[in-house]
Amino acid sequence: MDPRPANGRPIEDYALLSDRHSAALVSTDGSIDWLCRPRFDSPAVLGRLLDPDAGHWSIRPAAPFRSTRAYIGDTFALRTEFTTDTGTAALTDALALGPATGTDAGRIRLAARAPLATVRVLECTAGELDLDFAFRPRPEYGLVNPIFTTVPGGVLATGGPARFVLSCPVPLDFGDDGATTRIALRAGQRLHFAVQTAGLAQPPRPPWTPDEIQAALDETVRGWQDWNDAHPPWTGPAPDLVKRSVLVLEALRFQPTGAIVAAPTTSLPEAVGAGRNWDYRYAWVRDASFTVQALAAAGCHGEAVEFFEFMTRAAARYQPQKPLQIMFGIGGEHDLSERELGHLAGWRGSRPVRVGNAAWLQPQLDVYGELLDAAWHLRGHLRGLDEPARRFLSGIADAAADQWEQPDQGIWESRGAPRHYVYSKLMCWVALDRAVKSAHRLDAADRAGRWAAERDRIREAIETEGWNPRVGAFCAAFGDDDLDAAVLAMPASGILPDGDPRLVSTVDAIDRRLRDERGLVRRYEAGSDGLEGVEGSFVMCTFWLAQALALTGRPDRAADAFALAASCANDLGLLSEEIDTAIGAMLGNFPQAFSHIGLLNAAVAIRDARRPATR
Length: 615
Known about the structure:
It comes from Glycomyces albidus. By secondary structure, the protein is α+β, with helices and mostly antiparallel strands. It folds into two domains: 11-228, Distorted Sandwich (Beta-galactosidase, Chain A, domain 5), CATH 2.70.98; 231-610, Glycosyltransferase (Alpha/alpha barrel), CATH 1.50.10.10. Helices cover 30% and strands 20% of the residues. The chain is built from 14 helices and 26 strands. It has a 15-stranded antiparallel β-sheet that branches. Strands 24-25-26 form a three-stranded antiparallel β-sheet. Strand 13 and strand 14 (162-167) form a beta hairpin. The relative contact order is 0.10. Residues 1-6 have low confidence and may be disordered.
């Protein structure tokens, strides 16, 4: 047995920082326990989230303390206030954005020139107190212990593929485990810290002065706030959570390409100790139509177009001899081969820690519908599809027509035997329905007849083989009795009329059978995914239930389900992937884009259901 204790700080204790190139997680006690550089999917340089020896940077009172925190306005600059018996101090943290730039469309492009720097400003606001400082970078997921040398104005840490320049105004002690000191502060005193990251081949950058650090922080606050203010205000339910969800999607959007990572972390488990630990730092085609709808509803049309264009460019072309890849690296990479990091203890001992994701090799038929549905939703905002894009979208419509009768792994990437999932068939229907409606834009009028014929065959199959009269619902797969929360997407798809009683019955069956003791919705019934252990309840699925209830004419019940799912957010409005049914704590990678997307789309459905004339 590994003698090292597993890290186990609750996931909800963390706050997100982002410079749209990478992300950091900061705990309530002032410790940055997760940071990958230079990209979201790069090896972690601070990784205590997954192992106590994998690196962190902490600034916290030496004496017992209480802490409160909040983002500064509509930004990802975090202010944490520590209170002890002798005084209070405020710590402000951010990943520096650099100067904002514009686009041809006049939009604000955040972090185009991000300096890859973490800035921290510490101020004593009352009384006096001592604070402990510890800077312990560990590149390559904790494998590398850097060498520290002093330089004018700070410290240089070198080891592995990275160099870190710590701008530090106080003397430090150096040991085998990093740079530490104890700082005594009195009211009115302020200290500025920063860490700049560079590759080993790059010359080390000079430390920043306090004025430069303050300017970088001010620029970051102004950049986020200006981006937020450039978008229309939300007039529906839960305005604060909706606003924060839009900001989260922008924070998880990789600046150079427009890709959105599903989450900025890897291997935070879906069930503690059960091996359900996956790397989510990639962009899923599955998320395309949901993401586009959410961004468009928030007025982020340019951002939605960039995400859609990333997906089509990363895929490049449809190859009839193999399925469309379901996910890509944030730079467009195709090979996401999975491996295990055996030297890491895992969050609360949840091994293995994985990097890469073997799901990239799985066939999932739903991706055809999600891409073509995204193109349909953006038809008024795309400047026009060039010939390669038209050929690509027409090709995946052909793929849906050719492959819809095959079994697959489903949206939840089951590692069990392939099945004829109803959701996969539904999204093939969506693919062909949107292709038929877009045939003129795709220069594919000659193929529209075949697409329409296959679309009608899929609908007939879903109605005859997917509907289970014993259960009174469209079930998870043809001929089966188990339920799948993904089928809650059916009311929004348009495959059946809004008032079809089978839609209402399906939503009600899922409402009855997939809710846990807390009222949250599980993805599916236990034992149907081919994996050990039982995962938590899925936040996105509870928002899906709220959306489906709204779309089937039950806005009050929808609002109740929405409020329950929204209550899963932490004090900063951030949502994880899942919730531990037993204790109500967060599980899974964090923060989870899918959960925030679900919140946005459910809020839109509830707003529109209460204003029928707008539907």
